[in-house]
Amino acid sequence: MWQTILDTLRSEFSDAPDAEQVTRILTRLLLAALLGGVLGYEREHKGKAAGIRTHMLVAMGSALFVLVPQLGGMAVGDLSRVIQGIVTGIGFLGAGAIIKNRSEEDVQGLTTAAGIWMTAAIGVACGLGRESTAVLSTLLALLVLAVLPRLVGRDRT
């Protein structure tokens, strides 16, 4: 009986058959969390509702959505459908952050929505194993969020 239980548990956790695979999964998910957290910290520091936890979860979730099918052997072309689903889903999440007030020019939350969208893209890059692209994208996003408002003299984000 115990042997059957152990065999069942072993087969249930067989998606990470060796240390190399576990390291790959851990690296991609942790990097997604870290990079999402960096962007989330910047937003939280500015008092925005979508902060560290939101950005970390969006990045990790996006990474996981592409990582699992990829490790399961899904063809790269088929992954495009998964990515399309992520983009659509995050679009709905971002839409919930946008508030339009009475005046046509008074719209709030656009930068937050765009930041969540960018964070999902960074998570996808991490999940696909494009770590350099994810890090460079995060640095560029930080430049846009933190430095650009100072250069143009406007920090309404």
UniProtKB/TrEMBL annotation:
This is Protein MgtC. Belongs to the MgtC/SapB family. It is found in: Cell inner membrane; Cell membrane. Keywords: Cell inner membrane, Cell membrane, Membrane, Transmembrane, Transmembrane helix. The chain crosses the membrane at residues 54-76, 82-99, 111-128, 134-152. InterPro entries: MgtC/SapB/SrpB/YhiD_fam, MgtC_SapB_SrpB_YhiD_N. Coiled coil: none annotated. It is a multi-pass membrane protein. Residues 29-151 form the MgtC/SapB/SrpB/YhiD N-terminal domain. The keyword Cell inner membrane applies.
